[in-house]
Amino acid sequence: MSGLDVTPYLKKPSRDAFGLALLELAAEDERIVAVTADVPESVRMQRFRELYPQRFFNFGIAEQNMMSAAAGLAREDKIPYVSTFAIFAALRAAEQARTDIAYPNLPARICVSHSGISLGQGGPTHHSLEDVAIYRLMPNMTVIVPADALAVALWMRAARDLIGPLYLRLSRAPEPTVYAEETPFRIGKARWLRRGDNLAILACGASVGYSLQAADLLAEKGIQATVVDMASIKPLDREVVIACAKTGAMLTVEEHSIIGGLGSAVAETLAESGNTVRFKRLGIPDVFTLAAPYPDLLATYKLDASGIAFHASALIQ
Amino acid sequence: MTSPVKILELKKTSLKIRETIIRLSEAHAFGLHLGGSLSLAEILTALYFSVAQVDPRNPKWSQRDRIVLSKGHGNVGLLVTLALRGFFPVQALETFNQLGSHFTMHADAQVPGVEHSAGSLGHGLSVAVGMALAGKMDSQAWRVYCLLGDGEAMEGSVWEAIMSAAHFGLANLMAILDRNRLTQEGTTAETMELEPLAEKCRAFGWHTLEVDGHDIEALLEAFNAPPHGRPKMIIASTFKAHGVPSHENKIKSHFAHLTAEQATAALEILEAERARLPDE
């Protein structure tokens, strides 16, 4: 696919990119409807609502009903883009997504915002640190965690004709820019961003950009790091994971619990491959998070550039 | 008005559905959802043999009415009805609950004629709302019917769905609530009081009717009543395992296996009922 004007996407939070990309897709496909639960502004569906009032459905503060109704719309040849805060889609409506959408393999696109700790001050009730684990468990579900705003637009295009359901994880906060030009993405394929022999950093979401920054810091100390964008968490790019093992040290980075997310997916693949490497999962440890501004939380949980560089250095010492 | 001949035919059909459920229950020592399938017999008859437009030879016919069994444990009733309506041979139900069969304990959309898989309660009406929204936005003539259990109405999501159907003005949606007053392990009154159920549905903006769920004529009248521009709720008073003396209106009927004696007793009553129907 080509012809995407990348300018509007640069330096935007991924939720803004979602709203823009949704408009582009909706203009091309009348089957697309937008579905939310009281938060059209927060998930950037306002413009869609203005342009396509007949294709927009606000279910109010009732996520379970929203998710199953999206299944009903999908059963009738609509392609629902469902969006609310990640925590509510992931946990409140998890069974509806599993049984009503994933089981019948319906083409719903569950595009959730405010994921991870991106609504920092919101605290544990609004932090979403279990969602990737939960959606990764569902057969038929594709799980994508884009690195930045442009990546959101590109992944939404890559997944446009997906037969089954999609879980697309968006952030409230602007991610560091990783992609500044159109890049072909394929579901199930990871993307090499930087090559280095000392260790490999495998990241998803905002952590990709911070990992690239960390790689710069590491280079200053003479440590050469590979950085890979693992946005496609399910299906996972096994070949790339195994190729990364050649460095002898692997660090996974994600704004998610270290249980069940990217780190777990990589660990499972590694263990079954028979490769032995020094390995660490960096993410939110098995605790309920603090409430604080997002940058403070990134620093606290060592998910910013210096935190990632610290753990990378420690891993290869 | 439905003709007396048609009513008679429908009564015979409902007896055939009952008979087939009873025989399946006798054949399956593991047990099946007897009570909540038999409570649906007349409702399913009215829907599939009179009210709803369906085509057994073309289950995905685009103009069909959509029927969502939300109380997925009523699946034996649904499967028997679909078989007798011609979606697949009754004989095929011999594979019920066997490895590889889609004829399972709970409704599965891999079976021709089953619109959506259900089993976990409180999902189906929301799915039906989504279908009705799609139909409404495309100005389709087809309607959406949803079969709810009364115990199911203890799930909060059912009320989210009820609220949203009224909000979206879904006059193309109708729900039939099987008011058999029993859950898996108790009465609805002692488990979680649902009353005043009809008043609640009216307060939530639905055109609400209450009928005897074992009376075909009353059901047809309710189905055919105008919805007054709103979603319609039919609260159908029924008895679990209706027509099976050993189990009727008993908690144990929820999941049961009928012994040969119990099945014979039920079939004798059924034959007597059939004999009482006038000749055509």
Describe this structure in words.
The complex is a heterodimer of chains A (317) and B (280). Chain A is of the alpha/beta class. Chain A has 2 domains: 7-169, Thiamin diphosphate (ThDP)-binding fold, Pyr/PP domains (Rossmann fold, 3-Layer(aba) Sandwich); 191-316, Rossmann fold (3-Layer(aba) Sandwich), CATH 3.40.50.920. Chain A has helices at 14-28, 46-51, 63-75, 86-92, 94-102, 131-136, 149-158, 206-220, 238-244, 262-273, 294-300, 305-316, and strands at residues 32-36, 56-58, 79-83, 109-112, 142-144, 166-169, 191-194, 199-203, 225-229, 232-234, 249-257, 278-284. In chain A, the strands form 2 sheets. In chain A, strands 2-1-3-4-6-5-10 form a 7-stranded mixed beta sheet, sandwiched between helices. Chain A has a 5-stranded mixed beta sheet with strand order 7-9-8-11-12, sandwiched between helices. In chain A, strand 1 (32-36), helix 2 and strand 2 (56-58) form a beta-alpha-beta unit. In chain A, helix 1 (14-28) runs parallel beside helix 7 (149-158) and helix 3 packs parallel to helix 5 (94-102). The longest helix of chain A has 15 residues, at 14-28. Chain A is globular and about 60 Å long. With 280 residues, chain B is of the alpha/beta class. Chain B has one domain (4-276): Thiamin diphosphate (ThDP)-binding fold, Pyr/PP domains (Rossmann fold), CATH 3.40.50. In chain B, 41% of the residues lie in helices and 10% in strands. Chain B is built from 10 helices and 5 strands, in the order αααβααβαβααβαβα. Chain B has helices spanning 4-27, 34-38, 41-51, 75-85, 124-137, 156-167, 188-191, 197-203, 216-224, 260-276; strands at residues 66-69, 144-149, 173-179, 207-212, 232-237. A 5-stranded parallel beta sheet of chain B has the order 1-2-3-5-4, sandwiched between helices. The mean pLDDT of chain B is 97. The chains are: A alpha/beta (317), B alpha/beta (280). The A-B interface holds A 33, 54-55, 57, 59-60, 62, 64-65, 67-78, 80, 95-96, 99-100, 103-104 and B 109, 115-117, 119-120, 122-124, 126-135, 137, 156-157, 160-161, 163-164, 167-168.
